[in-house]
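Entries read sequence, tokenised fold; example below:

***
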Amino acid sequence: MAKAVPITIDQGTTWIVVMTLKSGAGAWDLTDYEFRMQIRTSAQSTTIIAEPTCTILDATAGELQIKLTATETSVIPATGAGYADVTEYYYDVEMESSAGTVWRLMNGPIYVSPEVTK
């Protein structure tokens, strides 16, 4: 079962998460795996709001980076009147083996805080 992790993104900023995937024996070797993440208004929505770039930084150390550039976050709709008035979306992160097996690693809500300085 995926780990539920709420995320907040500040619209118009670079958003980066670096994680180390581990198993009982230590770091998970990410060689021969691919990762993907999508952000949508709901799990059933067919419209992708954003698709962060997933990059393996060090396969044998299990290091994965997920990133949105400032340009990418600036176009995510955030309709709040102030910083605390966030817009809610949903995401998940999936890992796929070279054999085609897919695991959902994490999922949850994403809250986007509106940008003032443009």
In short: The two ends are 39 Å apart (CA to CA).
